[in-house]
Amino acid sequence: MKLSKVEDGRHPANLHRTLTLEMVRVTERAAIAAAEWRGKGDEKAADDAAVNAMKSELDRVAISGRIVIGEGEQFECDELYIGQPVGAGQGPDVDIAVDPLEGVTLCAKNQPDSIVVLAMAERGGLLNVARNVYMHKIAIGADYAPGTVHVDWTATENVRSLAKAKGVPVSEITAIVLDRPRHAGLLEELRMAGVSVKLLSDGDIAGVIHAVNTEDTGVDIYLGSGGAPEGVLAAAALRCIGGQMQGKLILDSPDKRLRAREMGIEDANRVYDVTELASGDVLFSATGITDGSLVDGVRLRRDTVETSTVVMRSWSQTTRWIRARHAR
């Protein structure tokens, strides 16, 4: 993975680097729990196992944490709900965004790219969004000039601008898009423009990361709409590895607009960049459940379990891949 300088100025390192390893332990445990249900067709059981393991492990970490992006509202779920305190109750005040099972269908079907994701930031560092809110997203690598693409432009305008900045014809641009019925028009427009399209069956956090890592993945741009929580988690990763991203919330009902205002969002049409989605000192960890292009999946053996994790830190711009063996 090509790393690029994310910011010219260094903000204070308010989250101690030892927290990165604690985060790895959390995502590892959730991935192992979900892997026990891998390929068994029971999405709820897999998700419940990941949630319970993540909550249990989070409560061992020396933080005063608060879930700002979780499984839903307090009345919708038992654990990891928005506003729930987590951690041992000592240590730094932090906001936490979680996706205990990104790609729950992928896990249930034992298909690639199911992962556990956790982001941690200083209090107030992560945009608070509800679980049921979607977001228009666009992401490209860090090497392009600001303003090369924009979430409000058409897909054709974006890929033409990107191709010009890259110095290639549009036919040499590859876009990654979630394979959803709502994207039928987007896919038709991209293909009419001559763009090569890579479809994601699920897991758009990894999709955004692939789009900013063109050298390794061959993907130039992420386009389309997906979950707003996943957008914030992806932005947390980009704060650590570099890359450009914009997000615009889709608040298409009075209830969603009201909940957004309650969470501090006043402008429903605001376009957020990476630093507005995830600011300050940010940590990110993802552990594979099934094999994928970002990390390998859990290996369940007779006496041991092997996990593969990528963990990142914005302050040091460090990315580590950790392969661990656990007693079973």
- What order do the helices and strands follow? HHEEEHEEHEHEHHEHEHEHEEEE
Structural domain count: 2
The unreliable regions are 1-10
In CATH, what is the homologous superfamily of the largest domain? Answer: Fructose-1,6-Bisphosphatase, subunit A, domain 1
Query: Could you report the average pLDDT, rounded to the nearest whole number?
Result: 94
Describe the structure.
- The chain is an alpha+beta fold and 328 residues long.
- The chain has two domains: 18-125 and 281-327, Fructose-1,6-Bisphosphatase, Chain A, domain 1, CATH 3.30.540; 134-277, 3-Layer(aba) Sandwich (D-Maltodextrin-Binding Protein, domain 2).
- Helix content is 30%, strand content 27%.
- It is built from ten helices and 14 strands.
- Strands 1, 2, 3, 4, 11, 12, 13 and 14 form an eight-stranded mixed beta sheet that branches.
- Strand 6, helix 5 (184-192) and strand 7 form a beta-alpha-beta unit.
